[in-house]
From TrEMBL:
Transmembrane regions: 89-119, 140-167, 179-212, 233-264, 276-296
Taxonomic lineage: Archaea, Methanobacteriati, Methanobacteriota, Stenosarchaea group, Halobacteria
Keyword Membrane in record: yes
The keyword Membrane appears for this protein: yes
Superkingdom assignment: Archaea
Species the sequence originates in: Halodesulfurarchaeum formicicum
Keywords of the record: Membrane, Transmembrane, Transmembrane helix
Name by which UniProt lists this protein: Glycerophosphoryl diester phosphodiesterase membrane domain-containing protein
Pfam families: DUF7544
Amino acid sequence: MTVHTMALHAVDDLSDAYRATRAFLFPIEWGRWLRLALLSVFVAGTSGGGAPSGNVQMPFNGGTTPGQTPGGDLTMDQLGALLSQHLGVIALVALVGLLVLLVVQWLAATFEFAFLESLRTDEVRVRRYVSAFQGLGTRLFAFRLVFGLLTLLIVGTVLLLTLGPILAGVAPGGPLLVLLLVMPVLLVFGILGSIVYVFTTAFVAPIMLLENRGVISAWKRFWGVFKAAWKDFLVYLLVGLFLMIGIGIVVGIAMAVIGIAVALPVVAVLIAAGPLWAGLLAIPFAIVGIVAWALVQVPVQTYLRYWALLVLGDVEPELDLISEQRQAVRGETPS
């Protein structure tokens, strides 16, 4: 193993990643971009969510019906009875939601390898690559699942031991003091967990693809490289943090512009023709917005993957997944 540590490759490779991304994506072929958009949506991950902001209330708030509290709020007994009556439906919905989440996560893990193979071969073949790399995808999915569950278990246990006594009626002074003491530990644990996740995606997955290894075996391979060139990977993390902030701002502005462009026609129809027509128009416009968001992710994810692959290949040439692209963007002669 020959590890090169003469330069901070994480900085030097930023411009090379841009040139590789430009060569890979342009000139635009819409079929290719749409396939990349599908992959990018999954490898980029999803975010969102929300919380209800009010009480569960009955339709009539002005009076009181038998068994109902003044103001129309459901009592705890009524809420418990309602949940008991629909327990089967709730369990079914929860089960379906869990299965959908697992399928999405499996696709995200498998699409990682489809995306990497697309960058390596300069060909985007979703079905072919998913079929070829579903074994590697399943291994990566299992690792992420177990790692996530262990992280959740550890954090949940700490919070339960510290906040549980308060919920049970114990004076909050002692548990809160313990929580304050363990917060730095949880913070460090969260940072280390995030680093493991980032390195698994950026460096371990390419090693799995290149050398047909499992996750643990690929991590062992990467660990030897990391120990020999830890400064490069530390700089990668620091530069990546600022890079993601910058990308987040740019993507946020782009999506705000797209969102306004999509929303304006719907609002105009709402004012002119009413909610029914606006609702009908909102469906295709929402689809357009989702597709636009996916297309925005294409250059972002392509650039980030190329950057990580360039860093890995510069630090350890034996792990170079994109040697031809590296030579092309640097004007080197193939050896």
